[in-house]
Design goal:
38% helix, Rossmann fold, 2 domains, globular
């Protein structure tokens, strides 16, 4: 007897499947799920991206080991890691890439063959977004606000991009001092310094990098006094939800050249997609996807 015409073809190969996720706090507005899933669909993959939001789970960093265990047990290909877990995840990993170890922060964990391998694509993501947005920026004296996980990545990127001296400020002065010491060990003495007086630090600055959560929907506001922004200054933002943070809006109004956080968001996702799948993403297509999402 012939098989019914509607019977499924059991010999047909299913496309490769990838289950990935994002771990962090206050991440419900993240564009990462759509950005990854759309690129996966465009490549003919079954690609599912899930959120592990500490706020929704009513949990803290102490739940991070359980989340990693669960993701491994369920066959996740990997996890993106964001605030506040980029440094806390380090002792939970089996291996850390040289870049991530130098940065002291991980934003991408690949789960493969029972092992957890940490990477950092924030560094390359920020650098590519900056090169595109501010290709001729003067890089003499640069001030950076924030010395956490994202801050470490963008600080390395800034010095790699040619910043002559980077001044770091953080709500935790010890964190800024520690990052400055690490940067000087990597890039050479005097390339980075910690400071506590933002007014003094901004005198003579060519550019400002903002790498704190201030400006996110959960943490509205400006990270520095408005009158420290002037037309000779360029400003690079890391926050991308909303894309026009109060800092971006105010800096533009005061005549600064500005690059928003969208470039870093897209190009770190490009790197993470490559690590999760082993496939080459279409960076320009992902950038177009992101632009359409943010415009909608």
């Amino acid at each position: 007897m012939n098989a019914p015409a509607f019977a499924p073809d059991e010999t047909a190969a299913l496309p490769p499947a990838f289950l990935v996720g994002l771990v962090g706090s206050g991440i419900q507005a993240s564009r990462s799920p759509a950005l990854h899933e759309r690129e996966g669909a465009a490549q003919g993959l079954r690609y599912i991206y899930r959120l592990f939001d500490f706020d929704v789970l009513k949990a803290g960093l102490d739940s991070l080991p359980r989340i990693l265990d669960m993701a491994q047990a369920l066959g996740f290909a990997g996890l993106n890691i964001t605030h506040p877990a980029k440094q806390a995840v380090l002792p939970l990993l089996d291996e850390v890439s040289p870049d991530a170890r130098a940065l002291g922060a991980v934003n991408t964990v690949v789960l493969r063959d029972g092992r957890r391998i940490g990477h950092n694509t924030d560094h390359s993501g920020f650098a590519e977004g900056f090169r595109r947005g501010l290709p001729d920026a003067v890089m003499g004296e640069v001030v950076q606000l924030g010395a956490g996980g994202a801050g470490a990545a963008v600080a390395h990127a800034a010095l790699s991009l040619g910043a002559q001296r980077l001044t770091l400020l953080d709500m935790d002065p010890a964190k800024a001092a520690g990052l400055a010491e690490s940067l000087n060990a990597h890039f050479g003495p005097g390339r980075a310094r910690a400071a506590t007086d933002i007014t003094a630090a901004m005198r003579g600055a060519d550019g400002l990098i903002h790498a704190t959560p201030t400006g996110m929907a959960k943490y509205p506001g400006l990270p520095l006094p408005e009158d420290l922004l002037h037309p000779r200054l360029w400003v690079a933002e890391v926050v991308y939800v909303p894309l026009e943070t109060q800092l971006v809006r105010t800096a533009r109004a005061r005549g600064c050249r500005v690059v928003d956080g969208g470039g870093m968001a897209v190009f770190q996702a490009v790197g993470a997609f490559r690590l999760f799948t082993g496939l080459e993403p279409d960076a320009e297509r992902m950038l177009r996807h992101f632009t359409r999402m943010m415009a909608g």
